[in-house]
Amino acid sequence: MNHKALLVSLMLGGNALSAANSLPESDPELIDIWGSVLYCGAIYDEPAIRDRIYQGDRQSCAQASERLAMHAQQSRSLEETRTIFDHASHKAAVIRYNTRSVQEAVAACRELCRSYND
Predict the structure, then answer these.
(1) Separation between Cα atoms, residue 113 and residue 118, nearest integer Å
(2) Based on the structure, what is the number of domains in the chain?
(3) pLDDT of residue 58
(4) Spatial distance between the Cα atoms of 35 and 90, rounded to a whole number of angstroms
(5) Is 19 a member of any domain?
(6) Residue 20 domain flag
(7) Rounded distance between C-alpha atoms, residue 41 and residue 113, angstroms
(8) How many Å apart are CA 46 and CA 50, to the nearest integer?
């Protein structure tokens, strides 16, 4: 992993890229991962990179977000799931605020979203 990819993975939650096929069990972990996926979905619509993103990558992030939502709903009430989603949305906003360049995050986002769809 190159230096930029490492920085981006840390920015997206540290363990986000190593989570292939494992759904989070704890609320803080779910919030971190779901927030990262929400962030990735949002940056794919950024005007600066929108035209350079494959439709498959957009779909992958949408599917990952849906999968995380379904996972959250399986063992929690609707109110708890909404609270987790609100915290994840806040996490996405914090990541966005702390991101210097969305172009550098694209590759990490692609890998993250795909890891929750395998």
Answers:
(1) 9
(2) 1
(3) 93
(4) 7
(5) no
(6) no
(7) 9
(8) 5
Whether 14 is in a domain gets the answer no
**94 found inside a domain:** yes
Tokens of 49: 């990179």
> Can you give the residue range of the structural domain that contains 59?
3-8+27-115
pLDDT per residue as tens digits for the range 10-49: 455 544 444 444 667 678 999 999 999 999 999 998 888 8
Q: Which residues contact 55 (CB under 8 A, 6 or more apart)?
A: none
Neighbours of 85 (CB within 10 A): 19
Measured CA to CA, the distance from residue 99 to residue 13 in angstroms comes to 12
Give the torsion through C-alpha atoms of 38, 16, 4, 46, to 10 deg. -10
Tokens of 103: 């172009």
- 17, two tokens: 């890229």
Query: Please, are residues 117 and 64 in contact by the beta-carbon 8 Å criterion?
Result: yes
Q: Take residue 26 and report the two structure tokens written for it.
A: 């704890």
